[in-house]
Amino acid sequence: MFRLASSFDFDACEFFGNCEGEIMRWILGALVMSLLAGNIAVDHAQAKDPEIPAITQSMQQFVADKEIAGAVTLVVGPNSVKHVSVVGMADVAEETPLKRDTLFWIASMTKPITGACVLMLQDEGKLSVDDPISKHLPMMKKLKLADVTPANITIRHLMTHTSGMSELPRESAYTDPTLEIVAKRYAELPVMFEPGSQWRYSQTGINTAARIVEVVSGMTFDRFVEERICKPLGMADTTFYLSPEQHQRLTKTYRVVEGDGEKPKRLEEDTISVLSGDTAMNRNRFPAANWGLFSTADDYGQFCQMLLRDGRVGDEQLLSESAVQQMRTICTGDLKPGFTPGNGWAIGCCVIREPQGVTEAYTPGTFGHGGAHGTQVWIDPENEVAMILMVQRANFPNADASKVRQAFGEALMQAL
């Protein structure tokens, strides 16, 4: 029996009856070659991923306008890819094109993954998001309000930016080698307001939650993410620390420099702040749960598909349905968050409450997070889709309200 590509089985002798004779062998050989050739063409057609032309065209225009060097856009359903396109360059000077497996610094798109880690431990009964953080980190009992009264911060406050925790000086915020060490520095900072009374974006809060994950699980946070999230989901290119091979696939970061009469508008290479001047391969830095991960569009798509399936991965319930609900249900009441209007906050995620401006095209209840250099994920439970935008530009005036994000969303929603 000949076994052709795509599991096409062909029993030549059964088809022809008696296979003896030179003429029959010649006919058989010609037929097999024809079928193979035809099947290869079919396989090639099947291998082509679906594409929403309007998304690709909008990204191509942003590249042509030097707003970005390139973009990978991906749209997934619970079990399928609905769109993928790759345009532009990973390295402008070397004219190296972006590829589908190019790695990006996803920055604050790390936060939903951190939220999933916290809720996974809640599923296991090892913590509650309503636990006071001092239950797991006794040193945090030192945290005080301006009037010197104790700051009663819960894990929920940490994960919704309502803790009031202060930030470290930017130049030294990411230089410590472990979360254990940097968390001790957090414990010495003043608390700016009564926890739960205001919304103020807090990087220290998210990293404190990651330290709690370490204490409760007995694993470093980077290992917990790898073992409990990335391995079950097949996210082999999602990591805090790149291998040499992965580093070769990391896109350059750019900033836009507007034309000044002497030089035209252009893209200039920039740096990734979380690396503090080092490379993404350097392991002598703590795994920053707030914005430290690198990933690919396809890897992050696996994470989104798990959430669209209410926490399921195959026959396994990686996250409980109630945990997924906590990632998409606003728990900050009427507090007004920053960045863009009309939103509220869930565990580790922004949730669109009243679509407007950059989110106008989206469905209420869509949840996700953006990254400092323009990356974005939105997960729409009603339409059962998730959109992942991978770009790497350092100086968007407001990355959360960028024209690139808006155009992607509008093109997708019009196509649904």
Automatic annotation (TrEMBL):
Domain Beta-lactamase-related residue range list: 57-400
Identification of the protein by name: Beta-lactamase
Gene3D superfamilies the record matches: DD-peptidase/beta-lactamase superfamily
Lineage top rank: taxon: Bacteria
Organism ancestry: Bacteria, Pseudomonadati, Planctomycetota, Planctomycetia, Pirellulales
